[in-house]
Amino acid sequence: MRIVNAHIMVMTMIDEGRAPRRATNLTLSAEATRRAKEYGLNISRIAEDAIVEAVRRHEGELWKQRNAEAIKSHNEWVEQHGLTLESLRLF
C-alpha cells in the first residue's frame, strides 16, 4: 500500500468500529441534544459519522489538488489520442 492511500485504511477501521475510541467533549445546542435523546439517537455515533465523512471529503479534495497536474495531463492525452481500449467498448 502506498503512503498516500494510508488514510483509506484508517477510515475503514473507523467505519468498522475497530479503531480505538477516545472520550471527547463536544458542545452542542441543548435543543438538538434533547431531541436526539428523545428519539433515541446515538449522539456520539452521529458525530463520529459526520466527522469521518468530513475527513473523507477533505482528504479527497487534497488528493485532487496533489494530483491535478497528472489528471490534467491524462485528460489532455485522452483528448488527443482517445481512450486506449475504446475499440473494445461494447456501448
Main traits of this protein?
91 residues, 63% helix, mainly alpha, single chain
Write a structural description.
It is a single chain. This protein has a domain at 27-70. It is an all-alpha fold. 0% of the residues are buried. It contains 4 helices and no strands. The protein starts with 5 loop residues before the first helix and ends in a 10-residue tail after the last helix.
N-to-C order of helices and strands: HHHH
Count of separate DSSP helical elements: 4
Shape: elongated
Percent of residues in β-strands: under 5%
- SS-based class: mainly alpha
Low-confidence stretches: none
- Give the distance, in angstroms, between the N- and C-terminal Cα atoms: 33 Å
Largest sheet, if any?
A: none
Using only C-alpha atoms, the radius of gyration works out to 21 Å
What is the arithmetic mean of pLDDT?
85
Helix content: 55-70%
The total count of strands amounts to 0
Task: List the topology elements.
Elements (H helix, E strand, L loop, with lengths): L5 H10 L14 H9 L4 H24 L1 H14 L10
Helix pairs in contact: 1-3
In short:
With 91 residues, this protein is mainly α.
